[in-house]
User: Fold these one by one.
Assistant:
Number 1:
Amino acid sequence: MTLLDSAPAVPAATSTSVTPRSWLRRNRGLLLLGAGLVLALLLLVLTTGVGRSGSLDPDSYEPAGGRALATLLRDQGVTVQRTGDVPSTVDGLPAGATIFVSDPSLLTSLELSDLQGAGAHLVLAGAAPETVQLLGLDASTGGSATEQQREPGCGYAPAVAAGTVQTGGYQYGGEDPHGQRCYDGTLLHLPDQDIVLLGSGKVLTNQRLGDDGDAELGLRLLGQGSTVRWLVPDPNRAVEGERKATSFGDLLPGWVNAAENWLFVLAVVVIAWRGRRLGRVVPEPLPVVVRAAETVEGRGRLYRAAGAREVAGEALRSGARDRLGKRLGAGRHPTPESLVELVARRSSRAGADVEALLYGPPPADDDALVRLARDLDALTKEVSGS
Amino acid sequence: MAVTGRAALLALLGLLPVIAAPHASTGLAVVGVLLLLVLTDLALAAPVARLQLARSGATACRLGESVDVSLSVVNATGRRLRGVLRDAWVPSAGAGPRTHRLDVPAGERRLLTTSLRPTRRGDRSPDRVTVRSVGPLGVAARQGRHEVPWRVRVQPPFTSRKFLPEKLDKLRQLDGQLVTRTRGQGTEFDSLREYVVGDDVRSIDWRATARKADVVVRTWRPERDRRLLVVLDTGRTSAARIGDVPRLDLALDAALLLGALASRAGDRVDVLAVDREVRGSVEGAGRTELLARMVDALAVLEPALVETDSRRLVSEVLRRSRRRSLVVLFTALDAAPLREGLLPVLSSLTSRHTVVLASVGDTRLDELASGRTDVDAVYAAAAAEKAQADRRGVTAELRRRGVEVIDAGPDVFASHVADAYLSLKAAGRL
């Protein structure tokens, strides 16, 4: 480095750095596309609302969801409250309320008895045999029935009002004299406990609600009171009577977790430090070069692959003849006879041998070809050496 | 922008408060402090875009030699510039050092020297200049790039220059030999001088003798101001590598020796490089500037992967040389391309000019032809014999049409080409 005190003339600007403005200009298309996508997504969300997914969830718009039924209930002036666990479901329950459980198999026996003790009209969709047993109901569970159109076949008012409905799922029986088996047992009403068992919740889904009397059935089953507590058991809910397992992390002192998180920050800084290149990689415009003898080697391999002993033998022979002819001054195009005679005289070999070597039949196999090549070499050496 | 190792160190030190008070707010506070430091440093670093960069230094270099190119950095900003600069060149330019440390006070200039040791012939040029300007805290840096174009023409090494003294010696012998000779082929009238004993009486110029008191003889010298046209075929056959060097480079080397020799001998030399189109040419160069112009024009030639257009080649030659010339054509002695390309149009060339066809022979062929180790080697040997027979065939055909053919190995190729020129000159066939 040299320090020069004389300032040079101002040179033309050479900077090609990306300025924010040029970056914006260059990526205008992509940016516009991204903005359009975000706008479209926003519009979609705003017009359709944010739903949850999950079967028979009152907030789910999916075919298997329960949004349609919940909306119908609300339209009838029924308050629908979605809950995730049992305590919030039974807490402050107004008289005459209905509790609907979308998937009772997720509940423990304690929770089930809590629900039973709440004193509400209880509707369980798709209660499995184990659940029925846990509930201590006087009901037996048969096999499961295929989904098909069924007549009510009982005197239970909602079923009678709904008429023919496509049902399926578990089939319930029972010795309870007051129990009402409807739809071939896929719906069982136990008036003593005020419980309705539904073989499968499918009948109440968004997809099916428009069919037959499904909506009627749903409204009448759930809309008896002024309030419906719609329990969609949350798999992560705190369950009473279960002790939360201590994880490895709980046993470590508090700062370890903090330090661990900080290491991520450190990693980001180190990546930013080491990952930034000082200028791009410069490629070399390479010329194309081919080895000159490559075609010859390739042809040799072709000869070998095709077993072209005739051509190969003749090539070797003509090469040797050419060398011998030149060596012995036989002229540009000697006749076979004159060349053989010259070579025989010079090499003290029999004329017939020389002729067989120089003008003989093509070698019979690869070994013969190798032998021919070596013999020709020996002959050439003999003639040149003498 | 970029962060430095110091920022990483600070982030590591940030671990202490985080451990001392393990709470999310501590972490956020430390991140905030770090960010503040980085942003302050970025704001205070000298802006890269406002630097003024300019290059100076060598524009040409012989392959294998090393030259320096300087980059002047003027800090036209109001802040001190500290950091690193990378002056990136293509890899074959052999540029070093990779990065330069920078410390330029505001308003001053520094000269950074990058030394180049090119590994390939042709034009080598720089890529971007990247400057990383570190802030006063040394935590973060602004990074930007400049494009400062330059070009260093890397000339062929002219390794065959070692033959030049020997060939010039031969040329001088030729000169001397012909001065004492009388009128003959390949000579022209030089001057009149007084007769000394031993001179051929037949060279006495009687008319001049009559005007002067003394007996005067005419002296002769080798023909001068003959025309020589060096034609380089840059088509696909010139891309073939003989040993480690492409055929074209060997031809360039021989062409340079020929040019140097012919210009010393007083002949006019033109150069033409052609495949499907004219890739380079030197026309009407004076004796002193010929070699420099040849080197400059030939330095950038690259083999093109196309079949040479022989008609184009011949018509270009005919267009350039109205007078009878010696045409030295550097191409490959490959039977198929010659038979299909050059041979059909050769007669229009040989009828007007003396033609020499020079081709670098491949030593690998001889190696292959003597292979006897196993069956594969023998088959390869047969293929090599066939290739050589083809070469001999096409050579014979060319000679029959009056073309001089030079087929020599890479190490003696240039020497043989020069010898052919000298012997043609001696024979007065130029």
Number 2:
Amino acid sequence: MSVDAATVRRIAHLARIAVADAEVSHLQSELNAMLAFVEQLSEVNVEGVEPMTSVMPMEMKKRADVVNDGEIADDIVKNAPATDNHFFLVPKVVE
Amino acid sequence: MTDLTSLTLAEARTGLANKTFTSLELTDAHLKAIAAARALNAFVLETPDQARTMARDADAKIVKGQGGPLAGIPLGIKDLFATKGVRTTACSKILDNFVPTYESTVTSQIWRDGAVMLGKLNNDEFAMGSSNETSCFGPVANPWRREGSNTTLVPGGSSGGSASAVAALLCMGATATDTGGSIRQPAAFTATVGMKPTYGRCSRWGIVAFASSLDQAGPIGRTVRDASILMRSMAGHDPKDTTSVDREVPDFEAAIGKSVKGMKIGLPKEYRLDGMPAEIEKLWSEGAAWLKAAGAELVEISLPHTKYALPAYYIVAPAEASSNLARYDGVRYGLRVPGRSIGELYEHTRGQGFGAEVRRRVMIGTYVLSAGYYDAYYLRAQKVRTLIKKDFEDCFAKGVTAILTPATPSAAFGIGEKGADPVEMYLNDIFTVTVNMAGLPGIAVPAGKDAQGLPLGLQLIGRPFDEETLFSLGEVIEQAAGRFTPPKWW
């Protein structure tokens, strides 16, 4: 399988990455090189094989459903580029 | 007094315990070496004041007999580990001036054990790379050069800063991480020892995530023993990481010097690649001969799905990366590039914040997870992964104790020599990536030099949670091959 220029733009949008028009053809050839490389997987017989979901076989750990952290709003917003009174600021979303 | 930076971690530990020198003296010697080695670009942030404070604390504890297993030992930290109050960037522009308000579990454990932080080490952006050339802080130089040449070589990656700093004697050991070979390949390129433990052995909490089902932290050390000492402090169960395994941490150092007599060592025939350099072939045979001389039995084994590990990796790892890196949105932390709408803000921030390699992988990951392609790519790759793991399980079930392979298909290469074709760079990890796909432990140990005088390493792969056997076998190789130190040019 290979991707065309329109697909490259669609992927970039899905990934929320701005891509300049001039970069599309270069990205297209790089992505196609990667897709050509992984193409060899199609020759493996995976009939009846379970996909790996857990690297080490173990039961999912659970913890008690209790509050064990919090009251750290200052920490949470400390690295934010724009805040106001413990809120993150973003451009207007609703008119 | 001998130059304190030339000691191994184990020797320094003895010197500190015997009060031959203090941690402050040891730390100052390394800070001086770091300041004189800026040409290597191994450190992206030096923390000399913090280092001296930690060293004084360690000295006070050592005097009282309360020093931990790493008391007073100066270490470098890969910039992928969150360090409280100390800038952590994953060497990406998108993290900008991120200063964590928390400490990663692995680093908190090495501080608990008394270690001293010298600073943060360079790596490929988000650990995506095999040469440390994708870092937003620029490439790292390998302290090794070809004999009679001034060409600057890469230290490997992604833990290039860790490997370069340990090889150049700037720190006594370093933390590193390995998703497809990022501890073992740079260790092999710099004649240092790198251990990637079993998946789940070390907590991933507080380490910048790349591909969560493959990422594991581990040490890079000057010797096999040094790596074993660091490993004990880095490992251990952490309730904050659901994939961290609740299992006792053994005294890995006790495995050093243990007999390997009667161990069955597998040599996988699929690792004998067409066109493999004769030097790598020779190194591999030599390694086998050393283990045989130590009483191990060598057997040829087959890992039939080996050739599919790298392509499967280049689906699984980008898929997980595209998900993990969704958090960099210009809102909560890191770089923000303004836009008229929030959508534009996301796209501009991510467009400018991610480097070329990261962007490429996030896009491939997005594509293979997108509607209509999930089954053909991601699901198939995860099935192939099951087969890769089964190959190893079948060998271990037949009584194979560990597997010996070359660590890399070549010695270190020059900066800018590879990478025009991304796949060419990916082939660096051909011998190491299978281990991540199967979640197994692997160690790279220096074993010789090529005709140009560059170090080469061998890899040992072990059964799940049997890092101890790898340390025992690694020690045999180190004893036979000797240690390699680069001539100082920087």
Number 3:
Amino acid sequence: MKQLLRKVFLADLIEGLRVTFRHQHPKQIVTEQYPFERPKIGERYRGAPRLNINPENGETLCICCDLCALACPEHLIVVGWERNPETKKKQLVTFTYDISRCMFCGLCEDACPVDALELTQDFEMASYTREGAILDRQTLENGLLPARYRY
Amino acid sequence: MADTFLDSTELVLNMGPQHPSTHGVLRVILKLDGERVLGTECVIGYLHRGVEKIAENRTWQMFAPYVDRMDYVAAVSNGLGYCLAVEKLLGVEAPPRAQAVRVILTELNRIASHLLWLGTHALDIGAITPLFYCMREREWILNIYEKYCGARLTTHAFRIGGLQYETYEGFEKDCLEFCDLFEKRIDEYEELLTGNRIWKQRLTGVGVLTADDCKEYGVTGPMLRAAGVKWDIRKAQPYSGYEKYDFEIPTRANGDTYDRYMVRMQEMRQSARIVRQAVGAIPPGPIMAKVGKVIKPPAGEAYVSIEAPKGELGYYVVSDGSTQPYRVRIRPPSFVNLQALDKMCRGALVADVVAIIGTTDIVLGEVDR
Amino acid sequence: MAATPWESELTRALKEEFGDQILEFSSYLGQNFLVAKPDAAIPILESLKENHDFDYLVDVTAVHWPEKPEPFEIVYIVYSFARNERIRMKIRIAEGWKPRTAAAVHLTANWLEREVYDMFGIEFEGHPDMRRILLPEEWATFPLRKENSILKMDQHWVQENLGIESGQ
């Protein structure tokens, strides 16, 4: 009799659905709604590289010591510099960073003595061409432009 | 009688390299008689990247990120093994604080690796639910890694001589919260699987490896312990301060797939226990031993092995006194354990092969290097 | 720091059994190893397994020293569960010399020796299945030999089978 009533009133189904609905609370949702909701990125996240500039005078912090290029396991950093004839100091001319080969190990960042090269929290580095993955000095200083994806 | 009745002949079947249950690009050539496996042959190397050759062309520090890419679900353990090997050559030891943090991260990594194994293994057998649960818990660990060192999977968390990063604020709290939650969750998994009749029927008595077989094939890790050998490098030859922590080596007697499942579940509990102890006692102090900017170990060689989630992970490093390794040989546990696949599969059914590959817990990145 | 002599009950027993077949007992960084004549390698492994409980062959690998008269060094690492001891045995062999396989003593040597063959081109005599294991069968070079630089690989194979100009 009891069994019959359970069947008639779909007791098992309701019990099952209760479990389902209990886990529907927004706090219980684990999946990130990525493009609509920005993911929380760790402060130390090693993402897109950036060349820092001195905020006071807008000059680059890089002293062209070449340590990042030496530390890089993939040899993907090329620092181009020339000696300023007046001050006899090294001057940064070009700086290329090939993120298509980068494995974001952070060794370049560790090697930099003046914190000029930094791996930032930016993680959206997709581009439509291979050449687009090779960052030049300008992109590194200004940061990656928000990519406009064709979707 | 059966084969004469069915008039069956031997059949050669390719499983993989694109098969969802081979966990990567493993190709197994099965020789079948009906549903029975007569013999197997593994074809590996699809993921070969020449890691050992790369090592000879990089400096000692530069090679550290590459080892993370071998066993990519247990990257931290790989890094620990490499750092310990080079530290052995250099004759330095990481300071106590670094050792404690290393233990925490490697044990979390063991949990993460076993969780991924559990999820995929259950999925292969036909239980889909555990995969989502396991991934959810693994996410916690990856978040801790992201906060600690800035990367989630291929972490490059350790450096030769210690650590690069100081623990972040709230590191202890995160780890303890994870342990609290995890110990409840693991009961949940056990509820789903351990007593499950289908699970038991699919696993019990499948892919048996006795203790002698294990030794003969060099099989280590949970597979060896499931066969009843109480051996764990963390206890036998402690490294990185493991002798300070109180934990047990879970063993089982039969050495079949079900026992390996039980051993790994117990191991996760023990790992959580170690994390708890280690988090409570991170000593203050420096995190980096005195090693120069340029690492130049004296000429010589050393073999250092650690208990990776999959078994004994060994590094045989040879230095000729220069800044680059002369030779780095990696003894990968997956590669050696995979060799026993043939022994385990003989006489089994085709459906069991899937279970056996799952229980071997291979990562093809490490098998092929 | 140089290697120091290694003496223990085990070395005495081995010395008694093999005499001048074993060239050296040493210890470096607390890790013990012995250097043996190439012919003696398999008998020593057998003896270690049968008489001294070294029942787990951890690894077989090789190191290439091109400028030495015997350019290849084969390293066997064995472990004993009962004694909790790990030792290494090295043999030095000349180019083209074929060492005997250890697969008859420890089954695990099968794949490990195939890998040594794959990477160094050292053939093991009596091996049940002496083929390449990681690289494709038709690959021309042995990559871990020192004369093969990382930039020099089997371009021919790559172009033929993958249809690409190789990277690097």
Number 4:
Amino acid sequence: MAERILMKGNEAIAEAAIRAGCRHYFGYPITPQTEIAAYMAKKMPKIGGVFLQAESEIASINMVYGAAAAGMRVMTSSSSPGISLKAEGLSYIAGSDVPALVVNVQRGGPGLGGIQPSQSDYFQATKGGGHGDYRMIVLAPASVQEMASLTIKGFDLADKYRMTSMILADGTIGQMMEPITFEDAEITTYEKPWALTGTECKRKHNVVNSLYLKPDELERKNFERYEKYAEIEKNEAMWEDYMMDDAEICVVAFGIASRVAKNAVAMARAEGIKVGLIRPITLWPFPNAAFEAADKAKAFISVELSMGQMIEDVKLATKCQKPVYLCNRTGGMIPSPDEILASIRNAMKGE
Amino acid sequence: MAVVFEKPKSLTDAPFHYCPGCPHGIIHRLVAEVMDELGIEGKAIGVAPVGCAVMAYDYFSCDMIEAPHGRAPAVATGIKRCRPDNVVFTYQGDGDLASIGMAETVHSAARNENITVIFVNNAIYGMTGGQMAPTSLPGQVTQTSPYGRDVNHCGWPIRVSEMLATLEGPEYVARVAVNNVKNVKNAKKAIKKAFENQIAGKGFSLVEVVSACPTNWGMTPKAALEWVESDMLPYYPIGVYKDRSAGEDK
């Protein structure tokens, strides 16, 4: 059996990335994710990999763009203000159909915000961030174990669909320590005939590019990309149901918020309230099927560390046919189980 | 019949989109001739900028990528660090390299990143229709300096080669011009050295090519080349600004 080890969430991401075959990391320091860079700086030179501290987040995402275009498993990590700077590169990576893994260990915003945990980059991750029509696969770990497993999954999805997978974590899960196990993950290797390797004068040159000056070509490219996105929506949504079988109240929460919510659900169950939890693991694609299955639910509560961003997707998933309440803290604050319990009681009363 | 002149193998058959009299065609050709002579077409990976040369990926027959504005040295860094045996070059203009991409330029030079940078300085933003560049000369009239570049208002043009030469990092920094036959020949020598340096693992090599933009300067091609000689080269003198291995045996 694989060894059980105690690890910080950020370090679990780094170790998992190496186990997934990532040998190229480009980053820039920012709290609360810097342990990822520090881990890579220590490990990469010893395993024939590359760690490079870039001059900025902008440079680091463009190094990722170059390395991804060269056909490598490559990643960068940052936290909220840094992700804003990477948005340009994320758009180019999407427009050029190259695979990459990007980690956002979120902190409070907007602006420089704070350094405490937050989930207020939900819109940025799931609705865009950079310019143009594009999507990223967004994975939301709720434990240190999932920081590792979703990193490995993220690399696989990125290669499979030639796009960015984003790990959308938060400062708490990045910083906390939990025991985890690295099972020997089966790593799929993908052919990359489009990659920049040098032609060896044996083939026509490969071009990695997002510029299409003819509008009909650009339109066709975007339609094609959205066909791929439709496949992903159909096949890749992941979520966890907790006590949902008979739930009349459905709490929806991801990441660290879902762990507090689970406690609140257990407390409410002890009071005889039929309540359950849907925990989206993929934020894009959003697990709409989970909500179709929750047909006994009379009301939903979106629990978030933001001013209410995921709640819009909950309303869409429930087709606005049932009340959706918001239970939130923001700016680096985390709701207590009691606060969520109060929300559950209110929802029972239709408040 | 003997072939006395032909298109370099490192160029595709795509016709250039450049304006009449624009030296980009000459500079593309010099880079391609050097790639042919060094036999590196099959292992070269080029990085195109945002600017007039944005579609360089259509013209060079090696593998190519198009970078975001100013980020070519970062993209090239990513490629080169993954594929150190390939020959990686960027081809950038003055707005791209010396304005929005200055941080990427300076830091890739400081790291002595083993890449080759071809920097085309024509003192104007060509692609967007002739705005003031970081290298536009004092008094130069452009769309965004319609009364002439006022250095008290928007500062002085930047001498990139001189500035980079102050860094410990870079292996080779030289400025050349393509306004006459002699200068074109010397430009090719510098470009060749910049590629040879990379192949020898020596590190960051940048060739600044003082060029012309007849269209946006509002001049005939001939007058534009004369303006390079009379106005550009006094501010941007031709020369080798840094050559760490100068004097080493060939």
